Amino acid sequence: MRVGVLTGGGDCPGLNAVIRGIVRKGVQEYGYDFTGFRDGWRGPLEGDTVRLDIPTVRGILPRGGTILGSSRTNPLKIEGGVRRVQENLAAEGVDALIAIGGEDTLGVAAALHREHGVKVVGVPKTIDNDLSATDYTFGFDTAVNIATEAIDRLHTTAESHMRVLVVEVMGRHAGWIALHSGLAGGANVILIPEQRFDLDQVCAWVESRFKIRYAPIVVVAEGAMPRDGDMVLKDGTLDSFGHVRLSGIGEWLANQIEKRTGKEARTTVLGHVQRGGTPSAFDRWLATRFGLHAVEAVRDGDFGKMVALRSTEIVRVPIGDATARIKTVDPSLYAEAGVFFG
Ligand code: F6P
């Protein structure tokens, strides 16, 4: 049995841990051979492969990024793309494929399985934690830890200068990183894409914080929007998915707060720092278990499935369950955090 492995979409701490788990179990317990495909779906599309065996996965557990490389190539959007993928899988003698990725990568996997019978198992990945059908995705915990540490540091500099510190974190469609890091870091305002915010209310929270002689920390997800969101949307450009990418909500918000409250405000945009570097212990644990269970699904011939975390169990769900809709922050969870605002 030869199993192909690929990692697609934005990289995420823990990808290497998954690859290691797959290869170690596959080789040691089942005697499988592996073929790594470079750069997500570009690998099978172009027949670009890389060696994958026990020596190549040695020492990669704590390393961020992915030894296989990643891209957002989508063979479904390329003329003849599916045929080329099928031909290259056959040419490499690949009997089954494990696709590690987010909404888009897994969307391709689901379609290839459903419509073309490709034997594929999915592993969910995103720092945003917005994939349905799994309690958590690996990479999220690391991103939250990085953002929390940043918030802790920003508290002390904000206090020293009695300034507003706006921290922009990742999350275009879901506010999980903002909510978790904001709560963990003791933010005074948390703004998420799921709920449009009222600028007057944000300014009121900021001012109330100053009244008790503390400097406010505002955590804003990159996809958060004010109620009269057109102001920001005008500056939006389309990203590679055709989504409107809001340019600099953090910067915009700090300017507005400064203008309206007369308090000095600064912005920190955490950006790709949240995605880089070594995975947390939780993410290594989750990613490793996903890898082990993905190769078990291959052994069982349980294709078209994705491994997922339910409580502490790893289960298998149809890949389509994860990609049908994104998992957003529940309004009650967000409301719960409101006691700390202001
Ligand atoms: O989906 C993961 C993610 O990190 C988002 O939070 C972020 O908006 C996006 O990827 C950034 O993508 P890119 O690295 O292509 O700019």
TrEMBL record:
Chemical reaction(s) catalysed: beta-D-fructose 6-phosphate + diphosphate = beta-D-fructose 1,6-bisphosphate + phosphate + H(+)
Pfam families linked to this entry: PFK
GO cellular component: 6-phosphofructokinase complex
Pathways involved: Carbohydrate degradation; glycolysis; D-glyceraldehyde 3-phosphate and glycerone phosphate from D-glucose: step 3/4
Binding-site list for Mg(2+): E103
Top-level taxon in the UniProt lineage: Bacteria
Chain sites annotated for binding diphosphate: G10
EC number per UniProt: 2.7.1.90
Keyword match Electron transport: no
Marked site positions, Important for catalytic activity and substrate specificity: D104
Binding site for substrate: T126, I127, D128, R163, M170, G171, R172, E222, R266, H272, V273, Q274, R275
GO molecular function terms listed in the Swiss-Prot or TrEMBL record: 6-phosphofructokinase activity; AMP binding; ATP binding; diphosphate-fructose-6-phosphate 1-phosphotransferase activity; fructose-6-phosphate binding; identical protein binding; metal ion binding; monosaccharide binding
Keyword Phosphoprotein found: no
Keywords: Cytoplasm, Glycolysis, Kinase, Magnesium, Metal-binding, Transferase
Subcellular location: Cytoplasm
Residue numbers annotated as active site: D128 (proton acceptor)
Gene3D superfamilies: 3.40.50.450, Phosphofructokinase domain
Coiled coil (residue ranges): none
Activity control summary: Non-allosteric.
InterPro entries in alphabetical order: ATP_PFK, ATP_PFK_prok-type, Phosphofructokinase_CS, Phosphofructokinase_dom, Phosphofructokinase_III, PKF_sf
Quaternary structure (record): Homodimer or homotetramer.
The protein's name: Pyrophosphate--fructose 6-phosphate 1-phosphotransferase
Natural source organism: Actinacidiphila cocklensis
